[in-house]
């Protein structure tokens, strides 16, 4: 028994004629007749007396038609509820953001969302990629703003923008006076990574062509998780860093960062939700708010190559140890 079959018998009751009912249902008359026959055979009851003109429901058919009308009304109520749920901009939403993006995007994003969705309450959680994925799967988070693809079949990704990576150099670096950065022989051994930021580190290793992070110089091991600390280490001439562009938007005057040549290495930033998430209008508003608060340089088209992380041997090996 299907909703469509119930619609057919209600239309037949209202029209009392196969051809007119088929026209109302936008189906061929033979198709409608077959579906009625299939339904009657399934329940073992004749719903209409075909020997009478006009077509007349049987006594049991009248009761079945009345129940069908009730079911269809309830189905419409469910549809209206779903549409309203998708379009509502009220209530609480828990948003997770990767820690390498949160300090730079969230202050801009919150200001825009406060104007767009004044009746919504946002709880913002900064976390590592693995924690965000776990939060989405468990329901602890509704939406995550993170680098994609995740490689998780139960999550839905809505790409928002591509964020270029930049080289962050100290004043004595060989490329300090260049307009564009090119990898130098000594840079790979000086690359600074972030503790527990497996997806971010995997992207940096990919950009530098490093297969084994053990090749990086390890006289000092830095157990840090802040991009700002990485910057200070670079300024102190203790290493070399690759940073996402949003992390240096207020440092254009320093001249310490250098863009890569095109195609620029970028990370894809997306809104990620579970496959059961229903608030589509909210996602549209969040997408719009993020895009509108980006600096103009990130809104422009440019040649790029997307840096993946979820298929990196380093990422897989590091996460397996958790």
TrEMBL record:
Protein's UniProt keywords contain Translocase: no
Entry's transmembrane regions: none
Family matches, as Pfam families: HTH_1, LysR_substrate
Keywords recorded for this protein, A-Z: Activator, DNA-binding, Transcription, Transcription regulation
Keyword Transcription: yes
Superkingdom of the organism of origin: Bacteria
Residue ranges of every copy of the HTH lysR-type domain listed in the record: 1-58
InterPro entries, per database record: LysR_HTH_N (IPR000847), LysR_subst-bd (IPR005119), WH-like_DNA-bd_sf (IPR036388), WH_DNA-bd_sf (IPR036390)
Family designation: Belongs to the LysR transcriptional regulatory family.
PANTHER family, alphabetized: HYDROGEN PEROXIDE-INDUCIBLE GENES ACTIVATOR, TRANSCRIPTIONAL DUAL REGULATOR HCAR-RELATED
Protein name: LysR family transcriptional regulator
Organism annotation: Flavobacterium gawalongense
């Amino acid at each position: 028994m299907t909703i469509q079959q119930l619609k057919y018998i209600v239309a037949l009751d209202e029209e009392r004629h196969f051809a007119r009912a088929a026209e109302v249902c936008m189906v061929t008359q033979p198709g409608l007749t077959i579906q009625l026959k299939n339904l009657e055979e399934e329940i073992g009851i004749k719903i209409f007396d075909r020997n009478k003109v006009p077509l007349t429901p049987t006594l049991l058919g009248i009761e079945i038609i009345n129940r069908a009308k009730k079911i269809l009304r309830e189905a419409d109520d469910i549809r209206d509820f779903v549409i309203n749920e998708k379009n509502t901009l009220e209530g609480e939403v828990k948003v997770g953001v990767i820690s390498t993006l949160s300090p730079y995007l969230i202050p801009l994003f919150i200001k825009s969302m406060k104007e767009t969705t004044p009746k919504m309450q946002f709880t913002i959680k900064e976390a590592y990629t693995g924690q965000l994925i776990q939060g989405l799967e468990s329901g602890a988070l509704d939406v995550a703003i993170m680098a994609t693809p995740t490689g998780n079949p139960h999550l839905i990704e809505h790409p928002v923008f591509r964020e270029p990576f930049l080289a962050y150099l100290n004043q004595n670096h060989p490329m300090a006076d260049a307009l564009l950065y090119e990898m130098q022989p000594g840079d790979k051994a000086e690359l600074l990574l972030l503790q527990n930021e497996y997806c971010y580190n995997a992207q940096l290793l990919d950009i530098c062509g490093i297969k084994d992070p053990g090749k990086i110089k390890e006289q000092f091991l830095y157990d840090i998780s802040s991009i700002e600390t990485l910057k200070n280490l670079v300024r102190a001439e203790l290493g070399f860093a690759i940073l996402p562009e949003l992390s240096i938007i207020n440092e254009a005057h320093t001249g310490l960062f250098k863009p890569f040549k095109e195609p620029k290495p970028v990370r894809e930033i997306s809104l990620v939700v579970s496959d059961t998430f229903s608030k589509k209008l909210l996602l549209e508003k969040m997408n719009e708010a993020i895009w509108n608060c980006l600096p103009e340089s990130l809104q422009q088209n440019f040649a790029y190559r997307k840096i993946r992380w979820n298929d990196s041997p380093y990422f897989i090996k590091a996460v397996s140890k958790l």
